[in-house]
Each structure stands twice: as C-alpha cells, then as structure tokens.
Design a protein that fits this description.
The protein has 6 helices and no strands. With 126 residues, it is an all-alpha fold. The protein has 2 domains: 82 residues, Winged helix-like DNA-binding domain superfamily/Winged helix DNA-binding domain (Arc Repressor Mutant, subunit A), CATH 1.10.10.10; 44 residues. Helix 1 crosses helix 4 and helix 2 crosses helix 4.
Length: 126
C-alpha cells in the first residue's frame, strides 16, 4: 500500500514538473537551440513519448532523453537567474486579488462599469 502511495505521489510530481517546465518553456523557449526545441516541443507540447520522438526524428531513445533533461535544466537555470515566470505569476496573483476586491466592493454599484474593469483585468490574466 505504501508503495502505491509513493508511486502515485511520483506520478503527481512528474505531472507538476511537466506543467512547470511547459510554463517555463513559454517564457524561455526561444533561447533553446532549434534541434533541442524540436524534440522538447514534441515531448512537452504534443505529449509524444520518448520512443515516438526517437522513431520520428531518427534519434536514439537515449539521445532524446538527454535532450529533454538538458532542456529542463536550461529552463530551470534561466528561471533561477531571471525569475520572469515568478514575477509573472506574482503579477497574476495581484491582478486576481484586485479583481476579487473590486467585485466585492462594487457588487451593488453600476454593473456595466464593473464589467468593463473586469474585462480589462481578465485580459491581463490571459
């Protein structure tokens, strides 16, 4: 039973890491070499498996695995130094908190005025 719980936790951790790396890729993808970017996009964005990528690109599974790990490390290093994603998330949190507060304070006010403000803030969140 403990082994299943650990396995489940590892799966969740891997999913969270993949989502995080995908977010980092949105910020730092252009800094990755073209050949690495091709492999990484198939893996992260298209959800191809390592074997599928290797077969489609004529590379060994080991080479594909190494490229993916190298890009993960590069993305995390960029974020560690530049912190663009961290700042972006902080700004999103501030915008959401502002939107929530405005909604609460203006709930009995002019609905049209709030709708315009809400739309502009939601545009910033996207």
């Amino acid at each position: 039973m403990i082994m299943k719980a650990n396995s489940h936790q590892n799966d969740e951790d891997e999913i969270l890491k993949r989502v995080y790396c995908s977010d980092l890729y949105d910020f730092y993808g252009p800094l990755i070499k073209d050949n690495q970017r091709e492999v990484y996009e198939l893996y992260i964005l298209e959800d191809y498996g390592i074997s599928e990528i290797a077969r489609n690109l004529g590379k060994s599974r080991q080479a594909v695995y190494e490229i993916i790990r190298r890009v993960d490390k590069q993305l995390m290093n960029y974020e560690e130094k530049l912190k663009l994603f961290e700042r972006f998330k902080a700004q999103q949190d501030i915008i959401q908190a502002t939107l929530d507060e405005l909604k609460e304070r203006l709930k009995d006010q002019d609905a049209g005025a709030f709708a315009n403000i809400e739309k502009r803030l939601n545009d910033l969140l996207e």
